[in-house]
Amino acid sequence: MKKIQAVRLFPMAGAVRALARLSLGKNLPNTLNTLLRQFGLGLAGVTFSSTLWAASQTVGEFTQSNATSKDSVNLTSGGSWVVAPIPKASPTLGTGLQPVVLYMHPPKEDNPDGEPAITGVGGLYTDNNSYVIGAFHKDYLFQGRLRTMAALGKGKLNLNYFGVGDTGLLTEHPLSYSIDMNVLYLGVQARIPHTEHWYFGPNFLYTDGTVSFRLSELAPVFPDVGRSISIAALGLDLSYDSRDDSLYPKSGTYFTASISDYGETWGSDYDYRKHGLSLSHYFSLGPKLVLAANGELKGSSGDVPFFDMPNLAIRGYESGRFIDDYTFMARTELRYQFRPRWGFVSFVDGGTVNDSVSGLLSGEAGLGYGVGVRYRASEGSTLNLSLDLAKTSEDTGIYIRVGEMF
């Protein structure tokens, strides 16, 4: 069993990892007894990354990636309101409604890029009784040289835990849990002097709440248990953005590098670090055809609990289906705008997970592919409403969202 230290420091995490690594066999009864004893020491975790995933889908992804283009709305005569009750569908949370209300402030006269500050609220409710609500503000200061972002969120999600990697009991029989969390995010990025597209700055994340596992689904003799947890991190982000449009780029590059320290110094119950690299490039193959490509590497070190391990976001799988200490993912999309307000997309998502970066080439792998339809929200805007149908070896998923996947 890997990570003996993790078992000692995180009793519940270690026990569930052990269970996830085992196949059905003669050792199962002893493993379940061990799991029950470990729960007596306290519940140490849940897939916290899923909470951030849902929150970002609700407000962060829409605002930070899809609502910052100066070409998307006409703000020359003042601010603009956007009200969008958006249907939501995914294999992770099911189907529901995702309402978003945005106010795009008039651009500041001293901002040469004309980027508007954005304030808004968003929410999410699905048919598995999950919900998220949040509010945010993004601004551009000092002639656009400083970017700021602040967000508050609260949510309760009902999810599944599949274990670590791609082997073991929980892969075929995931463990249900719920997570009720409050989230605070603060971020600042400054343009690096004598550059046009490079930005660098710190961010802070804090969350606390209650986690509950439904162990009775494994066996009726197991109790459903829960515990309060706190997670906090101080991070640094470096980014390069030369895209011609942040809503529907046809050319350019978008690169990000990040590192975060999750430690007791910042108010966290755990002590570990996470880091990541992401690179997207957009190739214009004609006036209506774009090839978009993305590669992403995520890693973790220290006593990282399994509930915040790197996760593969492959369309067609539930969020959290592939988690481990390191993940690598590659995505490609061929985007064709066949009418002024209608588009078609074909895509392939693939990735691997492993407990070391050197083992990613031989690690557990997932692959998804599919097609999608795009519809422009309004004339003159490059903001799309997206519907994707994804297929994997395990399932088929339908995704409805605002904007592009990357």
Walkthrough of the structure:
α2 (11-21) runs antiparallel to α3. The chain has helices spanning 4-9, 11-21, 28-40, 48-66, 169-172, and strands at residues 80-90, 94-104, 118-126, 131-141, 146-161, 175-191, 198-213, 225-241, 252-262, 272-284, 289-302, 326-339, 342-354, 364-376, 384-391, 396-402. Helix content is 13%, strand content 50%. The protein is globular. 41% of the residues are buried. The chain is built from five helices and 16 strands. The chain has one domain (4-402): Porin (Beta Barrel). The longest helix is centred in the N-terminal third of the chain and has 19 residues, at 48-66. The chain has a 16-stranded antiparallel sheet, with helices on one face. With 406 residues, the chain is mainly β. The model is unreliable at 1-77 (pLDDT under 50).
Keywords:
Porin, 5 helices, 13% helix, 406 residues, 16-stranded antiparallel beta sheet, mainly beta
